TrEMBL record:
Protein known as: HIRAN domain-containing protein
UniProt source species: Alterirhizorhabdus solaris
Record-annotated HIRAN domain positions: 5-78
GO molecular function: hydrolase activity, acting on acid anhydrides, in phosphorus-containing anhydrides; nucleic acid binding; zinc ion binding
Residue ranges of the region described as Disordered: 104-131
Signal sequence region: none
Biased composition (Acidic residues): 112-131
Keywords (A to Z) from UniProt: Hydrolase, Metal-binding
Name of one Pfam family that matches: HIRAN
């Protein structure tokens, strides 16, 4: 068993759940590090490999992408697989998944680049340094 950790984008967030609950609202109530359950849905009518992404309150946020679900599902049958909420993304969410022992860890938050306008730049030749 090889320990692996990675982030994936949750798909289907824009859809309503079968009970009418709003997935995007559920995403917006999650906080980074909240536990996430991955629930295989082998009887899903469109994809036998479907894996639902469910928050700690039991509300579905969406699905693991179809191209990753078969591989993650196979790992779930043989290895420990855990997930946490990573962040809300534009129109969706990202989760952090760990295959192997231990809990997933959030990736470091990188500082956003500070945009500077011309008026914000200091000119060492400018009047504030002049005689």
């Amino acid at each position: 068993m090889v320990d692996r950790e990675f982030s994936i984008h949750v798909v289907g967030v824009a859809y309503l759940n079968a009970d009418g609950s709003n997935r995007l609202f559920a995403v917006r109530t999650c906080r980074p590090g909240d536990p996430i359950e991955l629930r295989p849905e082998p009887k899903h009518p469109l994809d036998e490999h479907a894996i639902a992404v469910v928050d700690q309150r039991g509300e579905q946020l969406g699905y693991v992408p179809a191209d990753r679900a078969p591989w993650i599902g196979s790992k779930m049958r043989t290895d420990p697989v855990t997930a946490i909420f990573q962040e809300e993304t534009r129109g969706g969410a990202a989760i952090r998944v760990r295959i192997g022992e231990g809990a997933p860890t959030l990736p470091p938050i990188l500082p956003e680049e500070v945009e500077r306008d011309d008026w914000d730049a200091v000119d060492p030749e400018g009047p504030e340094f002049g005689a």
